[in-house]
Amino acid sequence: MEQQHSQLYGVMAEFETANQLLRAAEKVRDAGYKHMDAYAPFPVEGLSEALGLGRNLVPLLTLCGGLCGGLGGFGFEYWVNVVSYPMNVAGRPLNSWPAFIPVTFELTVLGAALTAVFGMIALNGLPRPHHPVFNVHRFASRATTDKFFICIEATDPKFSLADTARFLESLHPQHVTEVQDE
Amino acid sequence: MSVPTTTAPANHPEIRRLVPVLAPGYTYESVTEKISDVVLKRPLGIPWLAGFALAFTFLMVLTVAVTWLIAKGVGIWGINIPIGWGFAIVNFVWWIGIGHAGTLISAILFLLNQKWRTSINRFAEAMTLFAVACAGIFPLIHTGRPWMAYYMFPYPSTMGIWPQFRSPLIWDVFAVSTYGTVSLLFWFVGLIPDLATLRDRAPHKWQAYIFGGLAMGWRGSARHWHRYQSAYMLLAGLATPLVLSVHTVVSFDFSVAIVPGWHTTIFPPYFVAGAIYSGFAMVLTIAIPLRKAYGLEDFITMRHLENMAKVMLATGLIVAYGYFFEFFLARYSGNKFDMFLVDQRLHGPYAPYYYALILCNILTPQLLWIGKVRRSVFMLFILSLIINLGMWLERFVIVVISLTRDFMPSAWGRYSATVWDYATFLGTLGLFTTLLFLFARALPAISIAEMRELVAHQSGEHE
User: Which of A:158-177 have CB within 8 Å of B?
Assistant: First the structure.
């Protein structure tokens, strides 16, 4: 397992239930670790608070995407039907704005939805087919099925292999493993 | 765990409330295994192959019908002047409406925190996508020159012309394409964690590569889940007004025109209710054979079927209210064209269709008031088929009767569909079913990650 060019990524502990993971995450946070992440096969309620994660950027980005879609959509319709290609339909005003609302609405939703999804994917740093945590065999086979993991990363200022491993052992996990970055 | 509830008499109100949305005794691993094995391990088997072959045959009927249409033009259909819309628009509205239940289940029930949506949302969303695909075909080929359909999109053309944004037909283009895109995004986002599960459980390397590529390296990180949940919640919030807007815009295609029977403000709400009504009927039509074929009765329980039956009953009553007010408002308006049109629905040449519609959409579904009917899988399946038929007839009545009875008797006409109309319609049923057959074996038909949440929720309650 220990290859010459491999580098230590962190230390990982495995837990049986979501509640154990939640309690462990709180203790890791309280112990002052900053560079850590928890892994669960489904969204665990309260886990982001337990890890001390703040608000994320997705809602704000989505708002911007929606505004761009809506304002851009209305502006475009106005430009098309008033400026670029004015068309007199039964003497109605060129800027017949109520008739522009359905498309404006659809483009608002489209802009917001595209930003929400692609913003989320980009902020998550995906696509990223490989990640050091997948080097842990038990993680690769169980993390998306039924096991819960917490990993303290080597970049953390408080990290030291022996101490951090001992600390994780004190949280009563099922396993504690080193994570190598090959 | 609430073990005895499944064996207790199901009609006792106290106990019925407890009929679980997930049969007891499941763990994270067993739900994962049960759902992912359908995709990863289960051999194809004769029933699947036979069903797929039948569906694929009808898909081939579609390709023949569309090819012939492109070769000869829309003259092969029964449409004429004044009945320019015919089957193409009837089918378009019918298919789009069916899609709406998928979005309702995945978005609105999610926002309302309805746990029972979990095991039906995935394939209901798939149904939405496939129904939108079928719907999209019709306006496209109905243009007569589908290769010029891009004219409807605003693009900087060398001719210097632009679309007319005051037209409901352009609103339709934007509404339907946005709906298709957002439904696809919603479905895909929901799939990401499950794709990662399939990647990690795949017995063959090639499966792991395909699912791994699609999962984009999802590893269940808490930071990722945090943003994922925000995005999913936002998508649900965006899809909710979107789904209402889509059928509203579809109804504008009719109600913005001045044709008698179309020019009415009740159309948007009553189209949306009808869409949800027919969509839930289609979800039942699919869910009942699906749960049987893959042994998913523990996940799609009687509680789901009964809840869907109740939604059908409620939306069916809204639709009935719509029919009544259509009738009442025409009479009350004193407008002779509107009154004449109502009379033509009851006594005109297409009256049998109107009576069949009332029978299918209003009278028969009243059986759902009876608890025994709501809890009979067989009866629900039959009723869902009847409602699907009824909603198709509704669109036929709206499109055809109004167009055959315009303002001037000299503009009256008759419409009858040709074999190519039927072939195209049956063909889209084939496309829809083919896609469903492929979906059931290529992707998890139930959201595994959400089922695990349900397991956590259930075990938490009884700890």
Answer: none
How many domains does chain B contain in total?
Answer: 1
Tell me which DSSP letter residue A44 carries: P
B188 min Cα distance to partner chain A (Å): 9
* CATH code at position B380: 1.20.1630.10
Q: Thinking of the domain A7-52+125-181, which architecture would CATH place it in?
A: 2-Layer Sandwich (3.30)
Print the domain residue range for B161.
25-461
The pTM of this model reads: 0.88
B9 within a domain of the structure (yes/no): no
What single letter denotes the amino acid at residue B430?
Answer: G
Compute the nearest-CA separation of B389 from chain A (Å). Answer: 30
Start-end ranges of CATH 3.30.70 in chain A? Answer: 7-52+125-181
Q: Hey, how many other C-beta atoms are within 10 angstroms of the C-beta on B67?
A: 10
B439 within some domain: yes
- A151 beta partners: A12, A37
What the block records as the tokens of B176 is 């339907």
pLDDT in tens, chain B (463 residues): 334 444 444 444 444 445 566 777 777 878 787 788 777 777 888 888 998 999 999 999 999 999 999 999 899 998 888 888 889 999 999 999 998 888 888 888 888 877 778 778 888 889 999 999 999 999 999 988 889 888 888 888 888 888 888 888 899 999 999 999 999 999 999 899 999 888 888 888 888 888 888 989 888 888 889 899 899 999 999 998 999 999 999 999 999 888 888 888 888 898 889 998 998 899 899 889 888 887 778 888 888 888 889 999 999 999 999 999 988 988 898 888 888 888 888 998 999 999 999 999 999 999 999 988 888 889 999 999 999 999 999 999 999 998 898 888 888 889 988 999 999 999 999 999 999 889 988 888 888 888 888 887 777 644 3
**Judged by CB atoms within 8 Å, which residues 6-65 of A form the interface with B?**
18-19, 25, 37-44, 47-48, 51, 53, 56-59, 62
In the three-class reduction of DSSP (H, G, I as helix; E, B as strand; rest coil), residue A5 is classed as coil
Answer whether residue B6 is part of any domain.
Answer: no
- Going from the C-alpha of B304 to that of each of B19, B278, B301, B329, B375, the distances in angstroms are 10, 17, 5, 37, 10
* φ and ψ of A153, to 5 deg: -90, 150
Residue B440 Cα distances to A46, B140, B176, B419, B437, angstroms: 34, 28, 25, 31, 5
Examine residue B136 and state whether it is found in any structural domain, yes or no.
yes
Taking the C-alpha atoms of residue B344 and residue A99, their distance in angstroms, rounded to an integer, is 32
SS3 at position B22 = coil
Q: In what order do the strands lie in the sheet with A175-181?
A: A36-39, A148-153, A7-15, A175-181
Do the beta carbons of residue B412 and residue B403 sit within 8 Å? Answer: no
Q: Do B231 and A128 touch (CB under 8 A)?
A: no
Verify whether the Cβ–Cβ distance B165 to A42 is below 8 Å. Answer: no
CA distances from B258 to A175, B79, B251, B403 (A): 73, 20, 13, 11
